Amino acid sequence: MKTLVINIKQLVQVEEQPRKWVAGADMARLGVIDNAYLLVDGDRIEAFGKMEDLDLESVYACNDTVKEIDATGRLVLPSYCDSHTHLVYAGSREIEYIDKIRGLSYEEIARRGGGILNSAERIRKASEQELFESAYARLQEIALLGTGAVEIKSGYGLDTESELKMLRVIKRLQDETPLAIKATFLGAHAVPAEYKGRQTEYVDLIINEMIPAVAAEELADYIDVFCDRGFFTVEDTDRMLNAGMKYGLRPKIHANELDLSGGIQVGVKYNALSVDHLEHVGDDEINVLLGSETMPTVLPGAAFFLNMPCSPVRKMIQAGLPVALASDYNPGSSPSGNMKFVMSLGCVNYKMLPEEVINATTINTAYAMGVEEELGSIAVGKKANFYITTPVPGIEYLPYAYGSNLVEAVFLNGEQL
Ligand code: NIG
Ligand code: FE
Fold it and tell me: Same structural domain for residues 85 and 217?
Protein backbone atom coordinates (compact mmCIF):
# COMPACT_ATOMS: atom_id res chain seq x y z
CA MET A 1 0.00 0.00 0.00
CA LYS A 2 1.28 3.45 -0.96
CA THR A 3 0.24 6.84 0.32
CA LEU A 4 0.68 9.89 -1.87
CA VAL A 5 0.27 13.30 -0.25
CA ILE A 6 -0.10 16.00 -2.91
CA ASN A 7 -0.32 19.80 -3.10
CA ILE A 8 1.52 20.22 0.21
CA LYS A 9 1.92 23.93 0.87
CA GLN A 10 5.28 23.34 2.60
CA LEU A 11 7.04 20.03 3.11
CA VAL A 12 9.27 20.77 6.08
CA GLN A 13 12.59 19.36 7.34
CA VAL A 14 13.50 17.57 4.11
CA GLU A 15 16.99 16.15 3.77
CA GLU A 16 18.73 14.99 0.61
CA GLN A 17 21.77 13.94 2.65
CA PRO A 18 20.66 12.73 6.08
CA ARG A 19 22.62 14.33 8.92
CA LYS A 20 23.25 13.17 12.46
CA TRP A 21 22.25 16.53 13.93
CA VAL A 22 22.38 20.23 13.14
CA ALA A 23 24.49 22.68 15.11
CA GLY A 24 25.35 26.36 15.43
CA ALA A 25 24.28 28.60 12.55
CA ASP A 26 22.85 25.59 10.68
CA MET A 27 20.11 25.35 13.29
CA ALA A 28 18.44 28.36 11.67
CA ARG A 29 18.38 26.55 8.30
CA LEU A 30 15.60 24.20 7.39
CA GLY A 31 14.98 22.24 4.22
CA VAL A 32 11.53 23.30 2.98
CA ILE A 33 9.87 22.50 -0.36
CA ASP A 34 6.91 24.67 -1.41
CA ASN A 35 4.06 23.02 -3.31
CA ALA A 36 5.37 19.53 -2.70
CA TYR A 37 4.40 15.88 -2.75
CA LEU A 38 5.38 13.02 -0.44
CA LEU A 39 5.19 9.37 -1.48
CA VAL A 40 5.15 6.62 1.15
CA ASP A 41 5.59 2.93 0.42
CA GLY A 42 4.60 0.68 3.32
CA ASP A 43 6.25 2.12 6.41
CA ARG A 44 8.97 4.07 4.54
CA ILE A 45 9.34 7.35 2.69
CA GLU A 46 9.85 6.46 -0.97
CA ALA A 47 10.11 9.89 -2.59
CA PHE A 48 9.32 13.57 -2.25
CA GLY A 49 9.76 16.69 -4.32
CA LYS A 50 8.02 19.53 -6.07
CA MET A 51 4.52 18.87 -7.45
CA GLU A 52 5.71 19.79 -10.93
CA ASP A 53 8.22 16.92 -10.78
CA LEU A 54 5.67 14.32 -9.65
CA ASP A 55 5.44 11.51 -12.18
CA LEU A 56 1.91 10.31 -11.45
CA GLU A 57 2.03 7.63 -14.13
CA SER A 58 4.94 5.85 -12.55
CA VAL A 59 3.32 6.05 -9.09
CA TYR A 60 0.16 4.41 -10.41
CA ALA A 61 2.08 1.94 -12.63
CA CYS A 62 2.81 -0.18 -9.55
CA ASN A 63 0.35 -2.89 -8.63
CA ASP A 64 -0.12 -1.52 -5.13
CA THR A 65 -3.15 0.48 -4.14
CA VAL A 66 -2.38 4.16 -3.80
CA LYS A 67 -4.17 6.28 -1.22
CA GLU A 68 -4.11 9.90 -2.32
CA ILE A 69 -4.40 12.77 0.15
CA ASP A 70 -4.79 16.38 -0.92
CA ALA A 71 -2.91 18.66 1.51
CA THR A 72 -3.75 21.98 -0.12
CA GLY A 73 -2.95 24.85 2.27
CA ARG A 74 -1.36 22.48 4.77
CA LEU A 75 2.16 21.74 5.98
CA VAL A 76 3.73 18.31 6.38
CA LEU A 77 6.39 17.82 9.05
CA PRO A 78 8.28 14.82 10.41
CA SER A 79 6.86 13.71 13.75
CA TYR A 80 8.48 15.13 16.82
CA CYS A 81 11.00 12.93 18.58
CA ASP A 82 10.66 13.48 22.32
CA SER A 83 14.00 12.33 23.69
CA HIS A 84 13.32 12.82 27.42
CA THR A 85 10.18 11.73 29.27
CA HIS A 86 9.08 9.97 32.45
CA LEU A 87 5.62 9.16 31.16
CA VAL A 88 5.16 5.88 33.02
CA TYR A 89 3.86 7.04 36.41
CA ALA A 90 1.06 6.42 38.85
CA GLY A 91 -1.01 9.44 39.75
CA SER A 92 -0.68 13.16 39.22
CA ARG A 93 0.87 15.60 41.72
CA GLU A 94 -1.21 18.73 41.52
CA ILE A 95 -1.06 19.18 45.30
CA GLU A 96 2.68 19.92 44.99
CA TYR A 97 1.81 22.32 42.24
CA ILE A 98 -0.22 24.28 44.77
CA ASP A 99 2.67 24.04 47.29
CA LYS A 100 4.87 25.60 44.63
CA ILE A 101 2.38 28.39 44.04
CA ARG A 102 2.50 29.02 47.79
CA GLY A 103 6.27 29.44 47.56
CA LEU A 104 7.95 26.09 48.31
CA SER A 105 10.92 25.22 46.10
CA TYR A 106 11.35 21.95 44.20
CA GLU A 107 14.11 20.97 46.63
CA GLU A 108 12.00 21.81 49.70
CA ILE A 109 9.15 19.68 48.38
CA ALA A 110 11.60 16.83 47.75
CA ARG A 111 12.99 17.11 51.29
CA ARG A 112 9.47 16.77 52.74
CA GLY A 113 8.99 13.43 50.99
CA GLY A 114 7.13 14.91 48.05
CA GLY A 115 8.48 15.01 44.56
CA ILE A 116 10.06 11.90 43.15
CA LEU A 117 9.58 9.96 46.42
CA ASN A 118 5.86 10.66 46.33
CA SER A 119 5.70 9.10 42.85
CA ALA A 120 7.88 6.20 44.03
CA GLU A 121 5.46 5.33 46.81
CA ARG A 122 2.61 5.20 44.33
CA ILE A 123 4.45 3.27 41.68
CA ARG A 124 5.41 0.55 44.12
CA LYS A 125 1.73 -0.02 44.89
CA ALA A 126 0.53 0.06 41.28
CA SER A 127 0.17 -3.06 39.15
CA GLU A 128 1.95 -3.45 35.85
CA GLN A 129 -1.42 -3.42 34.11
CA GLU A 130 -2.47 -0.12 35.73
CA LEU A 131 0.82 1.48 34.79
CA PHE A 132 0.54 0.18 31.25
CA GLU A 133 -2.97 1.53 30.78
CA SER A 134 -2.25 5.03 32.04
CA ALA A 135 0.98 5.31 30.06
CA TYR A 136 -0.78 3.96 26.97
CA ALA A 137 -3.33 6.77 27.23
CA ARG A 138 -0.54 9.34 27.52
CA LEU A 139 1.14 7.92 24.44
CA GLN A 140 -2.12 8.15 22.51
CA GLU A 141 -2.44 11.76 23.56
CA ILE A 142 1.05 12.77 22.47
CA ALA A 143 0.83 10.80 19.23
CA LEU A 144 -2.19 12.88 18.25
CA LEU A 145 -0.20 16.02 19.10
CA GLY A 146 2.45 14.99 16.56
CA THR A 147 4.99 12.94 18.52
CA GLY A 148 6.20 9.81 16.73
CA ALA A 149 9.13 8.71 18.86
CA VAL A 150 9.64 8.93 22.58
CA GLU A 151 12.25 8.00 25.15
CA ILE A 152 10.78 6.84 28.47
CA LYS A 153 12.69 6.50 31.74
CA SER A 154 12.19 4.33 34.78
CA GLY A 155 13.16 6.05 38.02
CA TYR A 156 9.98 6.06 40.11
CA GLY A 157 10.53 2.51 41.37
CA LEU A 158 13.78 3.00 43.27
CA ASP A 159 13.99 -0.65 44.27
CA THR A 160 14.99 -3.48 41.98
CA GLU A 161 11.55 -5.01 41.50
CA SER A 162 9.77 -1.72 40.97
CA GLU A 163 12.39 -0.46 38.52
CA LEU A 164 12.06 -3.71 36.57
CA LYS A 165 8.28 -3.34 36.70
CA MET A 166 8.50 0.12 35.11
CA LEU A 167 10.89 -1.10 32.43
CA ARG A 168 8.65 -4.07 31.62
CA VAL A 169 5.79 -1.63 31.13
CA ILE A 170 7.96 0.37 28.72
CA LYS A 171 8.80 -2.84 26.86
CA ARG A 172 5.11 -3.63 26.49
CA LEU A 173 4.49 -0.11 25.19
CA GLN A 174 7.23 -0.73 22.62
CA ASP A 175 5.47 -3.89 21.50
CA GLU A 176 1.90 -2.60 21.54
CA THR A 177 2.03 0.96 20.18
CA PRO A 178 3.15 2.32 16.80
CA LEU A 179 5.51 4.90 18.33
CA ALA A 180 9.26 4.33 18.28
CA ILE A 181 10.22 3.96 21.94
CA LYS A 182 13.59 3.86 23.71
CA ALA A 183 13.91 2.81 27.35
CA THR A 184 16.23 4.36 29.90
CA PHE A 185 17.08 2.93 33.31
CA LEU A 186 17.01 5.74 35.90
CA GLY A 187 17.44 3.93 39.21
CA ALA A 188 19.52 6.94 40.30
CA HIS A 189 16.65 9.40 40.17
CA ALA A 190 16.54 9.91 43.96
CA VAL A 191 17.63 8.09 47.11
CA PRO A 192 14.57 6.14 48.32
CA ALA A 193 13.27 6.73 51.86
CA GLU A 194 14.58 3.40 53.16
CA TYR A 195 18.14 4.41 52.16
CA LYS A 196 17.96 7.91 53.68
CA GLY A 197 21.43 8.84 54.91
CA ARG A 198 22.91 5.81 53.15
CA GLN A 199 23.29 7.16 49.63
CA THR A 200 26.48 5.22 48.87
CA GLU A 201 24.76 1.96 49.81
CA TYR A 202 21.93 2.78 47.42
CA VAL A 203 24.49 3.48 44.67
CA ASP A 204 26.03 0.08 45.47
CA LEU A 205 22.61 -1.53 45.08
CA ILE A 206 22.18 0.09 41.67
CA ILE A 207 25.61 -1.10 40.57
CA ASN A 208 25.55 -4.61 42.02
CA GLU A 209 21.91 -5.57 41.65
CA MET A 210 19.80 -3.25 39.50
CA ILE A 211 22.07 -2.75 36.48
CA PRO A 212 22.83 -6.49 36.10
CA ALA A 213 19.11 -7.35 36.47
CA VAL A 214 18.06 -4.73 33.91
CA ALA A 215 20.73 -5.95 31.50
CA ALA A 216 19.82 -9.62 32.01
CA GLU A 217 16.26 -8.93 30.83
CA GLU A 218 17.51 -6.53 28.12
CA LEU A 219 15.05 -3.93 29.33
CA ALA A 220 17.00 -0.71 28.75
CA ASP A 221 18.80 1.05 25.93
CA TYR A 222 20.31 3.76 28.11
CA ILE A 223 21.25 4.64 31.69
CA ASP A 224 20.48 7.94 33.38
CA VAL A 225 21.56 9.57 36.64
CA PHE A 226 20.16 12.72 38.27
CA CYS A 227 23.57 14.31 38.85
CA ASP A 228 22.79 17.51 40.68
CA ARG A 229 22.96 19.36 43.97
CA GLY A 230 21.07 17.42 46.64
CA PHE A 231 20.75 14.31 44.45
CA PHE A 232 23.68 12.21 43.12
CA THR A 233 27.28 13.45 43.17
CA VAL A 234 29.79 13.37 40.34
CA GLU A 235 31.57 10.50 42.12
CA ASP A 236 28.33 8.49 42.42
CA THR A 237 27.58 9.23 38.78
CA ASP A 238 31.05 8.21 37.64
CA ARG A 239 30.69 4.85 39.39
CA MET A 240 27.22 4.14 38.01
CA LEU A 241 28.04 5.16 34.44
CA ASN A 242 31.14 3.00 34.58
CA ALA A 243 29.06 0.04 35.71
CA GLY A 244 26.40 0.72 33.07
CA MET A 245 29.00 0.95 30.32
CA LYS A 246 30.13 -2.59 31.07
CA TYR A 247 26.63 -3.73 30.13
CA GLY A 248 26.50 -1.57 26.99
CA LEU A 249 24.20 1.07 28.51
CA ARG A 250 25.09 4.45 27.05
CA PRO A 251 24.36 7.39 29.37
CA LYS A 252 21.78 10.13 29.06
CA ILE A 253 22.22 12.40 32.06
CA HIS A 254 20.02 14.73 34.11
CA ALA A 255 22.59 17.47 34.62
CA ASN A 256 22.94 21.07 35.78
CA GLU A 257 19.30 21.73 36.54
CA LEU A 258 19.96 23.05 40.02
CA ASP A 259 23.63 24.01 39.91
CA LEU A 260 26.91 23.80 37.99
CA SER A 261 26.91 20.19 39.12
CA GLY A 262 29.72 18.67 37.06
CA GLY A 263 27.09 16.48 35.42
CA ILE A 264 27.94 17.69 31.93
CA GLN A 265 31.62 16.87 32.38
CA VAL A 266 31.02 13.39 33.75
CA GLY A 267 28.44 12.75 31.03
CA VAL A 268 30.86 13.71 28.26
CA LYS A 269 33.58 11.64 29.93
CA TYR A 270 31.38 8.56 29.41
CA ASN A 271 30.31 9.65 25.90
CA ALA A 272 26.73 10.31 26.96
CA LEU A 273 24.26 10.47 24.12
CA SER A 274 22.76 13.55 25.75
CA VAL A 275 22.98 15.75 28.82
CA ASP A 276 19.62 17.19 29.74
CA HIS A 277 18.10 20.20 31.60
CA LEU A 278 21.17 22.51 31.52
CA GLU A 279 19.73 25.51 33.35
CA HIS A 280 23.26 26.11 34.65
CA VAL A 281 25.85 26.19 31.88
CA GLY A 282 29.08 28.19 31.86
CA ASP A 283 32.04 28.49 29.49
CA ASP A 284 33.66 25.33 30.85
CA GLU A 285 30.54 23.30 30.13
CA ILE A 286 30.28 24.70 26.60
CA ASN A 287 33.93 23.92 25.91
CA VAL A 288 33.53 20.36 27.15
CA LEU A 289 30.50 19.83 24.92
CA LEU A 290 32.18 21.23 21.82
CA GLY A 291 33.78 18.40 19.91
CA SER A 292 31.91 15.75 21.91
CA GLU A 293 29.23 13.36 20.64
CA THR A 294 26.84 14.46 23.39
CA MET A 295 23.64 16.35 22.54
CA PRO A 296 22.87 19.28 24.86
CA THR A 297 19.15 18.91 25.55
CA VAL A 298 17.02 21.62 27.10
CA LEU A 299 13.64 20.93 28.72
CA PRO A 300 11.69 24.19 28.45
CA GLY A 301 8.51 22.72 29.95
CA ALA A 302 10.24 21.92 33.24
CA ALA A 303 11.91 25.34 33.46
CA PHE A 304 8.55 26.97 32.70
CA PHE A 305 6.57 24.87 35.18
CA LEU A 306 9.12 25.27 38.01
CA ASN A 307 9.83 28.89 37.10
CA MET A 308 13.56 28.19 36.83
CA PRO A 309 16.19 30.22 35.01
CA CYS A 310 16.45 29.49 31.31
CA SER A 311 19.36 27.60 29.85
CA PRO A 312 21.68 29.88 27.82
CA VAL A 313 20.58 28.41 24.53
CA ARG A 314 21.62 31.37 22.35
CA LYS A 315 25.11 31.25 23.81
CA MET A 316 25.37 27.51 23.14
CA ILE A 317 24.20 27.87 19.54
CA GLN A 318 26.51 30.83 19.01
CA ALA A 319 29.40 28.69 20.25
CA GLY A 320 28.56 26.18 17.51
CA LEU A 321 26.76 23.59 19.61
CA PRO A 322 23.62 21.70 18.59
CA VAL A 323 20.64 22.04 20.93
CA ALA A 324 17.71 19.64 21.32
CA LEU A 325 14.40 20.41 23.04
CA ALA A 326 12.38 17.68 24.76
CA SER A 327 9.27 17.68 26.95
CA ASP A 328 10.41 15.96 30.19
CA TYR A 329 6.78 14.76 30.46
CA ASN A 330 6.44 13.75 34.14
CA PRO A 331 3.99 14.34 37.01
CA GLY A 332 6.25 16.66 39.02
CA SER A 333 8.11 19.17 36.90
CA SER A 334 6.43 18.98 33.51
CA PRO A 335 2.98 17.39 33.32
CA SER A 336 2.71 17.78 29.56
CA GLY A 337 4.15 16.04 26.52
CA ASN A 338 3.02 18.73 24.12
CA MET A 339 6.04 19.28 21.87
CA LYS A 340 4.40 22.11 19.98
CA PHE A 341 4.13 24.04 23.24
CA VAL A 342 7.79 23.15 23.88
CA MET A 343 8.57 24.84 20.54
CA SER A 344 6.63 27.94 21.61
CA LEU A 345 8.56 28.08 24.88
CA GLY A 346 11.78 27.69 22.89
CA CYS A 347 10.88 30.74 20.83
CA VAL A 348 9.55 32.96 23.60
CA ASN A 349 11.78 32.09 26.55
CA TYR A 350 14.99 31.05 24.78
CA LYS A 351 14.81 33.40 21.79
CA MET A 352 15.03 30.57 19.30
CA LEU A 353 13.77 31.00 15.74
CA PRO A 354 10.98 28.78 14.38
CA GLU A 355 13.54 26.99 12.17
CA GLU A 356 15.71 26.37 15.23
CA VAL A 357 12.93 24.92 17.36
CA ILE A 358 11.85 22.62 14.53
CA ASN A 359 15.42 21.32 14.18
CA ALA A 360 15.65 21.05 17.97
CA THR A 361 12.51 18.89 18.28
CA THR A 362 13.05 16.63 15.26
CA ILE A 363 16.52 15.77 13.99
CA ASN A 364 18.40 16.78 17.15
CA THR A 365 16.08 14.92 19.50
CA ALA A 366 16.19 11.94 17.12
CA TYR A 367 19.96 11.90 17.68
CA ALA A 368 19.50 12.36 21.44
CA MET A 369 17.50 9.12 21.56
CA GLY A 370 19.53 7.20 19.00
CA VAL A 371 16.97 7.06 16.17
CA GLU A 372 18.43 9.65 13.78
CA GLU A 373 19.03 7.09 11.03
CA GLU A 374 15.33 6.20 11.00
CA LEU A 375 13.47 9.31 12.09
CA GLY A 376 13.70 13.06 12.65
CA SER A 377 13.42 14.29 9.05
CA ILE A 378 11.74 13.69 5.72
CA ALA A 379 14.36 11.66 3.86
CA VAL A 380 14.11 8.78 1.38
CA GLY A 381 14.27 5.45 3.23
CA LYS A 382 13.43 6.89 6.63
CA LYS A 383 10.36 5.73 8.54
CA ALA A 384 7.14 7.43 7.45
CA ASN A 385 6.32 9.13 10.76
CA PHE A 386 4.87 12.53 9.93
CA TYR A 387 1.85 14.74 10.41
CA ILE A 388 -0.27 17.04 8.28
CA THR A 389 -1.33 20.36 9.77
CA THR A 390 -4.63 22.18 9.43
CA PRO A 391 -4.50 25.03 6.87
CA VAL A 392 -1.90 27.50 8.21
CA PRO A 393 0.07 30.44 6.76
CA GLY A 394 3.53 28.87 7.25
CA ILE A 395 5.96 27.27 9.69
CA GLU A 396 6.16 30.37 11.92
CA TYR A 397 2.48 29.93 12.71
CA LEU A 398 3.15 26.65 14.57
CA PRO A 399 5.03 28.05 17.59
CA TYR A 400 3.12 31.35 17.33
CA ALA A 401 -0.35 29.83 17.78
CA TYR A 402 0.77 28.25 21.04
CA GLY A 403 -2.60 27.08 22.26
CA SER A 404 -3.98 25.60 19.06
CA ASN A 405 -3.40 21.99 18.17
CA LEU A 406 -3.07 22.42 14.36
CA VAL A 407 -2.47 18.69 13.78
CA GLU A 408 -5.01 17.34 11.30
CA ALA A 409 -3.66 13.87 10.46
CA VAL A 410 -0.92 11.71 11.94
CA PHE A 411 0.97 8.91 10.16
CA LEU A 412 3.15 6.45 12.05
CA ASN A 413 4.98 3.71 10.13
CA GLY A 414 3.08 4.87 7.04
CA GLU A 415 -0.32 4.26 8.62
CA GLN A 416 -2.79 6.93 9.54
CA LEU A 417 -3.81 6.95 13.22
O1 NIG B 1 13.45 15.65 34.87
N2 NIG B 1 14.97 16.47 37.58
C3 NIG B 1 14.73 15.31 37.84
N4 NIG B 1 13.68 14.57 37.51
C5 NIG B 1 12.50 14.96 36.85
C6 NIG B 1 11.44 15.36 37.80
C7 NIG B 1 10.72 14.21 38.25
C8 NIG B 1 9.64 14.49 39.25
O9 NIG B 1 9.58 15.56 39.87
O10 NIG B 1 8.86 13.58 39.39
C11 NIG B 1 12.80 16.00 35.83
O12 NIG B 1 12.39 17.17 35.92
FE1 FE C 1 13.64 14.38 33.51
Answer: yes
